[in-house]
Amino acid sequence: MRNPSIRAVFLSWLIAGGLMSGAVRAETEILSLNPASLREMPLESIPPWPDDMVLSGTNEHWQKILHEGEFVIALYEAMPATIDVAIPYTYDEYVLVLEGSVVLTSTEGVRQEYQTGDQFLVPQGWTGTWEMPSRFRELIIVETDQWEASDSLLAALFASPPKAGSSAPAVLPLLANTLQQAELDSLPPWPEGVVLTGTNAHGQKVLHEGQLVSVLYGAEAALLEVGAPFPYDEYVFVVEGQVILTSKGGSPKTFGVGDSFLVPKGWMGTWDMPVKYREKIIVETKAWNIDEG
C-alpha cells in the first residue's frame, strides 16, 4: 500500500536522504520474482505515516523498488497496524501478498480479507481502512507516471475529497481458484513461424482495464519464438502449468504455479509451455492499447 498523500508528506525527506537518487533502470533480461526470495529481501526504511492515519498499531514500514519502466514494481512491508485511507487512491495498485494477511474495508463497509499468496487490485478512487493484523509484506505494481505523480506535494495538497454520496470502486479479488476456472475468449492463432512446436491455440479474458490492464491468458502446450522485441513491460503470475523462458544468448529460466516474473520491454527469446498453461498478466494500459490496436 502506498497512499499518495502520505508519500507527498515525506517527499522532501526522501530527496534529502538520497533514497530517490538511484532509480532502477529497466533491463531486457527476465526478472525473476520468486516469492521465497522476495520474502527474505532486505528493504529500506521509509518515514512513518502521519499520526492521524494510523488508527492502531505500530507506525513503522519499509520499501524497495525492484523495477521501474512502464510500471513500477516495488516491495512494501509494515508492522501490524490499521491505516485510514481517507483520500481516494489516485492510481490502480496491483498487490500480491507475500507474508501475513490484510483486511480491506471500504468506506461503504465491504470487507475483504487476503492471505499469503493471494492477489488483488485496488482501483483508482478506492477509500477505506487497510488492516494488517501481523507483520505484512507485499509486492505491488503501479503505473510509473502515477507513481511519480503521487510523490508531488502539490498533488496531495490540492487532492479532492470524496464527493458526498459517491460510490468508490471495489477492490478486485484475483484469487487462484477463480483464475483457474474462469472462461477465456478464443484468440486468433499466432502467425506462421511463431509456433516452433505444439498446438497453436490460446485465449484470454480482460479482468480490469484502468491505468493498468489485468488479463488472464491461457494456451495449449507449445514452444514459441519471440523473434521481435517484446512491445511492453509484462508482469506475469503463473496460475497453471509451467513456462520456460530462454533469452537470446542466455540460460533457461523455469517458472511454475505461484511464481511470478517480469518480461521487460525489448526482450527476445523462446517461450516454452510444455503443458497446458495459464497466467495472469499486468500491462500498462497505454502500451497495451498501442500493441492491441
Features:
single chain; 293 residues; alpha+beta; Jelly Rolls; 2 domains; seven-stranded antiparallel beta sheet; 24 strands; 15% helix; 43% strand; globular
Task: Walk me through this protein's architecture.
This protein is an alpha+beta fold and 293 residues long. The protein folds into two domains: 4-27 and 34-173, Jelly Rolls, CATH 2.60.120.10; 179-292, Jelly Rolls, CATH 2.60.120.10. Helices cover 15% and strands 43% of the residues. It has helices at residues 4-9, 11-17, 35-40, 144-149, 153-157, 176-181, 285-292; strands at residues 31-32, 44-46, 54-57, 61-68, 71-78, 81-85, 93-99, 102-106, 111-114, 119-122, 128-132, 136-143, 172-173, 185-186, 195-198, 202-209, 212-219, 222-226, 234-240, 242-247, 252-256, 260-263, 269-273, 277-284. The strands form four sheets. It has a seven-stranded antiparallel sheet with strand order 1-22-19-24-17-16-14. A seven-stranded antiparallel sheet has the order 2-4-5-12-7-10-13. It starts with a helix and ends with a helix.
